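Continuing the batch. This is chain 6 of the set; chains 1 through 5 are on the previous pages. Same settings as before, nothing changed between runs. Recording input and output for traceability.
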Amino acid sequence: MTKPELAKHIRAVSYLTGEFTLRSGNISNFYWDKYRFESHPNLLTAIAKEMVKLLPTEYEGLAGLELGGIPLATAISLQTGVPCFYVRKEAKTYGTCNLIEGGVQEKTTLVVIEDVITTAGQVCTSIEQIRAEGHKVEHVVAAIDRQAGGEEKINAIDCSFASVFTLAELETV
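Output for chain 6:
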C-alpha cells in the first residue's frame, strides 16, 4: 500500500467529526480515532511499516505508550525483531509495581512510540518518567501529528520527533 493510499484508508476508517474534548482539554470539531485504524490488521501493519522507516539507526527497544502506542510498538517489533515494552501512565501499585512492563533491562536506549500527538503533554510526562528510571530516550515516532505544538514540546526535552502523517497531509486526501 502506498503512503497516499494509506492516508485515504486511515481517513475513511478513523476520521470523525462532531465535538470532542481532547486529552489536552482543548475542544476539537474532528477526531482521529486511533483505535479504529489500530484494530484493522492491514492498516496497523501498513502504518507500522511506515513508522519503521522513521526509526533512528541505534536503539535497543521500543517504548509503546499506554494505550494507543502499545499496538503500534508491537506491530513494529514484529517487523523489526526489536523488543517492545509497554509504558503505563503511572506505575501500578500492586504486583511488580512497574512503570515499564515487559522486562526492560537497566539503562536501555528506547524509542517512544505513540499513535496521535496533539500537545504531547502525556508523551513528555512519560519520557521524563522513563528517564527517571535510568533509561535513555532521544526519539519519538508517531502515526499522526495533529500539529498543535507537540513537536515543539518534544524537541524542548531534547528528543527528535517524526510522524508518518501530519494533520495537513491527512486533510488533503
